[in-house]
């Protein structure tokens, strides 16, 4: 990454300072159905709340947002339930009467996608990458069943696994977003580099340099490696560093400066180094989650859950690589 | 495995009253580790009839599972036996259960005194909030149990890794703490295998991927049997077992593995030659 010029650095510092009070303001209640917050000119965050998916948060832990153009609105991510989607669409309506031209689902994780049917019911087409749509179709009925047991049937009333109206296949179809009179770009990984999650999309508002990062970046919250190819994720982060971003709306946590990219990369690097050391020491999986503490990230949201799971997952992958690459030869009878 | 007909289920019910302590919203948030379940009552009568089963402080079995388990596709489960494994008194069989899994009997292990200490660790798939149980049977027929209630779910788990399919069945041993000649030595055997459950949808075709899993692992040291594991798809991908053996004289650790498509694989290690 080229060194930023002084002005850019100053802007980042200012933004970093601004991010703090904004960060507090983005999590005022545990309801997760709060009003939109303007991140940049015409770009809005619909904040999720801190915590885990459970009755206390009603599962409303994922961020969403939208971009208002002269002729329409692009919405990014929806919510954890049909009801949540209805409320988020209503929050958009409170800001603008422009028609919502499309809803982009950045990736197949429950707190971002189950509100989509509410947008579809209002005539908004849902845009998703084909690979993310496939992942969603293959597993999200199971997620929904778990969600019902966690949040109760009432909270999930009317919730279904959505089916996208527009499937993105690759970079050459990235311009398939409906026109809203301002440039909005879909960012995606190369097909052979699944990155953070199969078919992951990020949405860039080019006028303000605001990135809706989806699963690529979490702020003050542990990123989830469950669907990720770590090398591909690092490549995607390197790509983000080359872009002139001003603001980042992460999947979880408050709006941040682009310095967040380096923090997420640092987490992934530390995580992999830690589990590799535990594997080399012969530690059994049962002790890995406890032993994989990373003090730099210990106060992050989801540290007690996602981080422990991440450690198990990366440990298992490294163990598998070890099994495939070294050790005694075997032969079928 | 001998499946006994369901008899005198009423007695089992009386012994294991299901404490239905549902929290608000019907959430099973305060279920006790020692509680019974509908599924367990049924399994108990099928597997053990009306035989008494020691539990709590009276049990020689201990089950260690992360309470808020890390990863539903691979939940580490540690089995500790509170007595040594000797020819005079030994654990001859272990049954490992996941109450609410589609196929709750994850594994049945036949054990020999040659283990020295009948402790094990493996990884299980846990599909929804469920009790995990281990039931140990001593050579005199006495049954001992321990159970843990685990809050984890596999609903959003990543699918198994199916790359390197040509290496399916590759079976390896490791000695995580090195060799302790003449003393109880931990070892681990693992098999490269997706252990497909048959319940997973192919992401492209949206057809179910057929079941294909390791059903038997037989482990020996110096031609003496240590344990035979009969396993199901509740065991995670790349099945692995940590166990103990006592290397008194020089010999090989060997494993014979069989899967549900009649794939047969072997692995071995000379623990004395290990680096």
Automatic annotation (TrEMBL), chain A:
The keyword Transmembrane helix does not apply. Pfam families: Lactamase_B. Keywords: Hydrolase. One of its GO terms (biological process) is antibiotic catabolic process. The keyword Kinase does not apply. InterPro entries: Metallo-B-lactamas, NDM-1-like, RibonucZ/Hydroxyglut_hydro. Residues 61-252 form the Metallo-beta-lactamase domain. GO terms for molecular function: hydrolase activity. Belongs to the metallo-beta-lactamase superfamily. Class-B beta-lactamase family. PANTHER family: ACYL-COENZYME A THIOESTERASE MBLAC2, METALLO-BETA-LACTAMASE DOMAIN-CONTAINING. This is Glyoxylase-like metal-dependent hydrolase (Beta-lactamase superfamily II). It comes from Sphaerotilus montanus.
UniProtKB/TrEMBL annotation, chain B:
Residues 180-268 form the Sulphur oxidation protein SoxZ domain. Residues 1-22 form the signal peptide. Gene3D superfamilies: Immunoglobulins, SoxY domain. Pfam families: SoxY, SoxZ. Residues 45-156 form the Ig-like SoxY domain. Coiled coil: none annotated. Keywords: Signal. InterPro entries: Fuse-rel_SoxYZ, Ig-like_fold, Ig_E-set, SoxY, SoxY_sf, SoxZ_dom. This is Sulfur-oxidizing protein SoxY. It comes from Sphaerotilus montanus.
């Amino acid at each position: 990454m080229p060194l930023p010029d002084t002005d850019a650095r100053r802007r980042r510092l200012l933004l970093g300072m601004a991010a703090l009070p904004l960060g507090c303001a983005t999590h005022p209640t545990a309801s997760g159905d709060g009003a939109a917050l303007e991140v940049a000119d015409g770009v809005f965050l619909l904040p999720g709340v801190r915590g885990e998916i459970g009755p206390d948060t009603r599962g409303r832990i994922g961020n969403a947002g939208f971009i208002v153009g002269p002729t329409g609105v692009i919405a990014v991510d929806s919510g954890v339930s049909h009801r949540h989607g209805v409320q988020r669409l209503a929050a958009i309506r409170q800001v603008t009467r422009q028609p919502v031209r499309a809803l982009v689902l950045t990736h197949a994780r429950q707190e971002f996608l189950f509100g989509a049917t509410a947008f579809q019911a209002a005539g908004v087409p849902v845009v998703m990458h084909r690979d993310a749509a496939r992942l969603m179709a293959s597993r999200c009925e199971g997620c929904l069943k778990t969600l019902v047991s966690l949040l109760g049937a009432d909270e999930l009333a009317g919730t279904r696994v959505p089916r996208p109206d527009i499937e993105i296949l690759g970079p050459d179809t990235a311009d398939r977003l409906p026109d809203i009179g301002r440039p909005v770009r879909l960012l995606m990984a190369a097909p052979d580099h699944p990155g953070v999650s199969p078919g992951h999309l990020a949405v860039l508002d080019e006028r303000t340099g605001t990135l809706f990062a989806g699963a690529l970046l979490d702020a003050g919250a542990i990123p989830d490696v469950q669907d990720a190819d770590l090398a591909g994720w690092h490549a995607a982060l390197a790509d983000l560093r080359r872009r002139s971003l001003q603001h980042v709306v992460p999947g979880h946590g408050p709006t941040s400066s682009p310095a967040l990219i380096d923090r997420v990369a640092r987490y992934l690097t530390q995580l992999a180094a830690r589990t590799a050391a535990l594997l080399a020491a012969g530690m059994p999986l049962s002790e890995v989650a406890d032993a994989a503490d990373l003090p730099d990230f210990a106060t992050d949201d989801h540290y007690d859950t996602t981080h422990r799971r991440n450690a198990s997952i990366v440990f298992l992958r490294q163990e598998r690589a070890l099994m495939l690459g070294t050790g005694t030869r075997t032969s079928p009878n | 495995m001998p499946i006994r007909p369901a008899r005198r289920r009423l007695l089992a019910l009386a012994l294991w009253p299901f404490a239905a302590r549902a929290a608000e919203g019907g959430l099973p948030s305060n279920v006790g580790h020692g509680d019974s379940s509908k599924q367990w009552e049924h399994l108990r009568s099928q597997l053990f009839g009306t035989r008494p089963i020691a539990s709590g402080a009276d049990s020689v079995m201990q089950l260690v599972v992360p309470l808020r388990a890390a990863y539903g596709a691979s939940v580490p489960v540690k089995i500790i036996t509170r007595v040594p494994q000797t020819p005079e008194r030994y654990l001859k069989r272990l049954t490992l259960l996941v109450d609410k899994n589609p196929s709750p009997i994850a594994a049945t292990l036949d054990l020999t005194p040659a283990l020295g200490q009948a402790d094990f660790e493996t990884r299980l798939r846990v599909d929804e909030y469920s009790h995990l149980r281990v039931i140990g049977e001593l050579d005199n027929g006495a049954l001992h149990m321990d159970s843990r209630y685990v809050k984890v779910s596999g609903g959003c788990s990543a699918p198994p890794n199916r790359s390197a399919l040509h290496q399916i069945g590759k079976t390896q041993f490791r000695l995580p703490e090195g060799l302790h000649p003449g003393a109880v030595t931990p070892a681990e055997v693992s098999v490269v295998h997706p252990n497909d459950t048959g319940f997973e949808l192919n992401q492209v075709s949206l057809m179910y991927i057929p079941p294909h899993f390791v059903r038997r692992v037989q482990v020996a040291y110096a031609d003496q049997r240590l344990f035979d594991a009969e396993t199901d798809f509740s065991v995670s991908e790349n099945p692995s077992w940590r166990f103990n053996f006592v290397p008194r004289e020089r010999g090989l650790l060997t494993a014979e593995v069989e899967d549900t498509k009649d794939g047969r694989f072997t692995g071995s290690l000379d623990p004395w030659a290990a680096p």
